[in-house]
Amino acid sequence: MVKLRPPRRSGPTSAFAGGASRLGPLETRVLELLWHCNRALTVRHVQGAFTDLAYTTLMTTLDRLYRKGVLTRRLQGRAFAYEPCCSRDKLLGEAISGQVTALLAASGTSGAVLSTLVDVVSRTDAALLDELDSLVQAARVRLRLEDT
Fold it and tell me: In this structure, what is the dihedral angle of CA atoms 21, 26, 27, 33, given to the nearest 10 degrees?
């Protein structure tokens, strides 16, 4: 049997833990493992990557992710095999969308939120600002086409 290792914590992983408030740290780590393996895994397979955790802890974690709609499961022999319902990018996009929607609703004026977004993007990478501009232009074209 191949020994699995949990993925290193880097990049967007921290965004799930803080941004997607409905996922806890262990849930995030388990989900990262499933994305990394790119196939359905049983609790026994997942336990190979988390040797410090009890089988029942991982079973509960996978079941919670399933009940939250993040994982699908199917019977594989006598055990369930779990896999993500969507890609990392799609889940991150949904988490960000929810946060931005809440910020826009809470701010009263969207100007502050949007100017902060532009400031952060421009400080991070000028190319991202160009990409943001392209996305805005494409959205305008799409809205015009929908109006006609």
Answer: 130
How many domains in the chain? 2
Paired tokens of 74: 């199917």
pTM reported for the whole predicted model: 0.66
3-state DSSP percent of the chain in helix, strand and coil, to 5: 65, 10, 25
On whether residue 60 sits in a domain, the answer given is yes
b/e burial code for range 38-50 (CB count within 10 A of at least 16 → b): eebbbbebbbebb
Rounded Cα distance, 61 and 28, in Å: 10
Using alpha carbons only, give the angle 74, 70, 21 rounded to the nearest 5 degrees: 155
For residue 15, pLDDT over 90 is answered with no
Asked if the structure places residue 93 within a domain, the reply is no
